[in-house]
Amino acid sequence: MRLSGRRCALKRYLCYYSSSHSSCSLFINSDRHYRSHYSPRQLYWRSSLSCSSFPQRFSTQSGAFERGEQFLPVQTLISLLDSYHDATGLPWWIIICSSTVAMRLAIFPLIVLQIKKLRIIGELLPHLPPPIPPPLSGRSFRDQFALFWKEKEAAECPSVFWFFSSVVVQVPCFFLWLMSVRKMSLDHHPGFDTGGMLWSLNLTEYPQGALGAVFPLCIAGLHFANVQLSLRNSSLQHVPGTLKLLAKIYKVYLQLLTLPILITTFYVPQGSLIYWFPNSTFSLIQLLCLHNPNVLRYLGLPEMNASAVAPVIQRGSSAAADTLIRTKEGEMSAQTLSPDDLVSLSIEILGGGQKDAAIALLRVALDKDPGHVRALLILGQTLLQKEHYAEASEFLEKAISKLLFAGNPTEVGEVDFLILSSQWACIANMLQGKMEEGFVHLERIAQMNEPQDSNSKAHYYDGLIILATALANVNRRAEALQYLHKVATYNTAYNGYIEQLEVGFASHLSDSKRYP
């Protein structure tokens, strides 16, 4: 019995200091055999504990304790691919390609939803206050962002997260699949040595020879094609100023990324290339589909990177008779469209900076309906931007007369139009030196009740700010302070203006007393 105890102790000693996992297992099995006959439970427990706790760095087995240290998502995906392979018996290259396509198809509805949300954001964002305070506005970032958020919620504008939603999902999925297949290749997963196709039969090997360069070249070429197609005629190329420069830099960066991708693909196993190639191919097919008008109509999406209308062509001297609109189906006369359609088209054309074309359409709309308030307002604003002040004030005052014809308007849209028309009419008159006529329009806004609609309310207080500024410029500071105090109850960011004006007003009073 003493001899048996010494043998057991020797086995435990060797097991603890052995660098071979297999020898450790052998001693455990031997110890288990001894325990089953002599039941020395304490000896067996210590033996098993010492064996399982020796450090991995002393092991000569590359896979020792690796399963417990695997990244859980990678381990889960490998298990799913194994189950798929066991259930179907298909070659590994088909398993990898089909799972890639299934993953991309699962993400595609999110991309469709993202495009729809971005369209709504594109329509609502220009009508919201900027999230960052304008220069010299006196507003803090916190107050300006709070105003932006309040107006965004009132307009039911989707979250700006939709700008990044597809990237947040696609990029992790791409690297998860890439890491999982790479790990299977490096670990010589069962079947990977013969699970490839054509010249890449062994998925555990790296690209070699002339044929080995086919997949790396195709993957790099697909990346470059995807960049060119996704940014072709993109709206990023038409944004002004610094944003346009940043868009160009971003495009060049993506194009230059082709070379690092090409180099990288020569240093990954062929199993990873079998995944990467169909993934890039699917991206190209997806972009081609999203540029196809028939597919976009089927998905209920707006046409990407294309204007709703083409430039307007004028022929002859009569805009009403000879204005044509070029569309994809051909040329059509503006006379065939309703005033509402003409106004909508003019707004889209103004978004592209084509003021003259938009003015032509608005004039046609007013020929059809001289009392179309929205057309009068937009035409007046556009003429004011072109510095045609007299003509702009004429159209804006016509809009005001139309709105006040049956008394003060009560509908939300008409109230908003009246506020905006009065603001622009004031500016048009004051730019002509007609200060009194301008004050008449601003005082009309001051006499109105505060609107309940959030957009109309914002425009209402904008009108009061313009009135206070105009009054301060003609040394009517007391009245200006009265309106600024009212505005400050709506937005405390204007308290800074009140302090500045009060200081100026006090100094003005002291100067007037000193020099009668």
Automatic annotation (TrEMBL):
CDD domains: 5TM_Oxa1-like. Pfam families: TPR_19 (PF14559). It is a multi-pass membrane protein. It comes from the Eukaryota. It is found in: Membrane. One of its GO terms (biological process) is protein insertion into membrane. Keywords: Membrane, Transmembrane, Transmembrane helix. InterPro entries: TPR-like_helical_dom_sf, YidC/ALB3/OXA1/COX18. GO terms for cellular component: membrane. Coiled coil: none annotated. The chain crosses the membrane at residues 90-113, 160-179, 209-231, 252-277. Belongs to the OXA1/ALB3/YidC (TC 2.A.9.2) family. This is ALBINO3-like protein 2, chloroplastic isoform X1. It comes from Salvia divinorum (Maria pastora).
